[in-house]
C-alpha cells in the first residue's frame, strides 16, 4: 500500500501522521487518506476536487503531472509526499 506523507507545513494546519493507504493512483490514495482524516480534504483539494494552487504532490520524488484528476500512478510501495507549494518572487 502506498504511504502518504503530509509535510510539516501542512500539518501545522491539520495534524496528520503518515498513512498507509489503498489506491493505485494519487486520487485513490488521497481518497483513502481523506476517509481516515476528512479534515485534510479542504486544505488539499478545491471545491471541484482538483489540487489547490498552493499544494504540490510528489510520487517517489516526481511531481504529479495531472493536477486536475490526480490520475498519476501510485504503486504498491510508492511514497506520496504532499507539500505546500511556494510562489512569489
Short description:
This protein has 89 residues and is α+β, with helices and mostly antiparallel strands. It has helices at 8-11, 26-36, 41-44; strands at residues 3-6, 19-20, 55-59, 62-63, 79-84.
Under CATH, the homologous superfamily reads Beta-grasp domain
Strand content range? 15-25%
- Counted up, domains total 1
Provide the structure class. Answer: alpha+beta
Walk me through the structure.
With 89 residues, the chain is of the alpha+beta class. The protein has one domain (3-84): Roll (Ubiquitin-like (UB roll)). It is built from three helices and five strands, in the order βαβααβββ. A five-stranded mixed sheet has the order 2-1-5-3-4. Strand 3 (55-59) and strand 4 (62-63) form a beta hairpin. The radius of gyration is 12 Å and the shape is globular. The relative contact order is 0.27. The model has no long low-confidence stretch (mean pLDDT 92).
Amino acid at each position: 500500500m502506498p504511504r502518504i506523507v503530509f509535510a510539516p507545513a501542512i500539518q501545522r494546519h491539520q495534524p496528520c501522521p503518515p498513512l498507509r493507504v489503498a489506491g493505485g493512483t494519487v486520487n485513490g490514495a488521497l481518497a483513502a487518506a481523506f476517509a481516515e482524516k476528512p479534515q485534510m480534504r479542504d486544505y488539499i483539494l478545491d471545491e471541484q476536487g482538483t489540487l489547490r494552487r498552493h499544494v504540490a504532490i510528489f510520487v517517489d520524488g516526481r511531481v504529479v503531472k495531472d493536477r486536475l484528476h490526480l490520475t498519476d500512478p501510485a504503486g504498491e510501495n510508492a511514497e506520496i509526499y504532499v507539500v505546500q507549494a511556494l510562489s512569489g518572487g
